[in-house]
Amino acid sequence: MNKFGRWRLFGCAVVVAVVSGCGNSGNSSSSASLRLVNATLTHASLDLLVNAAVAIPATAMDSVSNAASPSSGSVTVQVNDASTATALASAVVSLTGGSHYTIVAYESGGALKTAALTEDFAAPATGSAQMRFYDTSTDAGALDVYVTTDTVTPWDTYLASVSTPTTTMTASTSPTSSGFGLYAASTYRVYVTGAGNKADLRNGFAGTTVTLANQQTATVLLTPASGGVLVNGSTVIQQLAGGYSALRNATARVRLVGAVSANAVVAATAGSTTIDAGNVAPKVGNYVIVPAPSVLAVNVNGAAVTPPAASLVAGVDATLLVYGNPAAATASLITDNNRRPSVSTNIKLRLVNGITGAPGSLSMSANFSTLASDTAAGAASTYGLVAGSTAMQFDVTSALKPEFFTTRA
Fold it and tell me: Shortest CA distance to 251 belongs to which of 298, 219, 222, 287?
């Protein structure tokens, strides 16, 4: 069960993942204001408990709850799945009377995590709004954020015309926050890319739409999609009832791995997006961002190959593996997990079997540690962990051919 971590009190500022300043509040000094955002991927509804009693029931996915008014002081806060009453995260926290808090529940690597935002920032001057970016997608690495009032121009055209991002979110193992920037009251489009690579879009072709009213304070949340590299975007408006909007990523990342024999040329598309225009196998391609869901099409030496039965899911990273002989090639879609190992010195490895014929199922060891066993053709093993090393020996074996393959890297 994931823990919140202890909130520490400094004057009227609460420190969790965001350090915030003081502001005026209409709340009673004996109670605080607390609400919950459900930004999870798999929990349709969440309950928030305070001192073992449900304070906020059934917050639906992609929504913010109404505010509860728990007593100030030290309390036990817990997030439960509303349908099963399973406890997902809990902590003893300290609440300041008269202050406002929003707990954001999100998922990373299948585990529920939380971030707490204080909501007592002073309003900006009349005629303006203020906005910051809060990044919980730690597996995505460093990110560039671009903000534009042009909500019509396609993202690739817009990004081609700018050279400097609005801000850069540095790579970190814990959530990070930008400072606030001042904006005119208007509607904006926020695009997120890999740092230094404008073509590496992370939050979907439509970006994240943010509408700011006069004197509002907004936090744009970047939360992990299921594959670990793409992100979802949402906006929290300070102290505004119902002030939350989410725009889920509607793209996936796919790479083509051509493992067809006889130096065949393998190509693939997803809808109207080209994954690979054609390369001689064997070849491991780069990830390409495509709409999800979309229809996959594969050809080998110009002839169509039956596409995988599995469909693309928004937010995932996937490998499109095409293998076999040119006259009877097979395509399979394998879900990738590009989240970082929890221990920074470890390496996450798996075996993808694109070999057909006599070798059959394959097994693999790295530095004599078994990581994969009996992986069938067209499939991938589960991921294993091995300590990082500047020199590593890989042994791939088959029950039919024990000394099938050995290499050092």
Answer: 287
Cβ within 8 Å of residue 264, ≥6 positions away: 258, 280, 281, 300, 301, 326, 329
Q: What is the reported pLDDT for 342?
A: 84
Alpha-helical regions (H) of 204-318: none
Q: What's the whole-number mean pLDDT along residues 35-54?
A: 98
- CA dist 353 and 378 (Å) reads 6
Q: Where do the structural domains in the chain lie, given as residue ranges?
A: 2-118, 128-248, 250-340, 341-409
Per the prediction, the chain carries an average pLDDT of 90
More confident residue, 409 or 79: 79
How far lies 264's CA from each of 83, 281, 338, 356, in Å? 51, 6, 29, 15
User: Which percentage of the chain shows pLDDT scores above 70?
Assistant: 90
Q: Of how many residues is the chain composed?
A: 409
**Which tokens is 269 given?**
């598309």
Judge contact between 64 and 56, C-beta under 8 A: no
CATH of domain 128-248: 2.60.40
Q: Is the peptide bond before 124 cis (omega within 30 degrees of 0)?
A: no
Helix/strand/coil for 265: strand
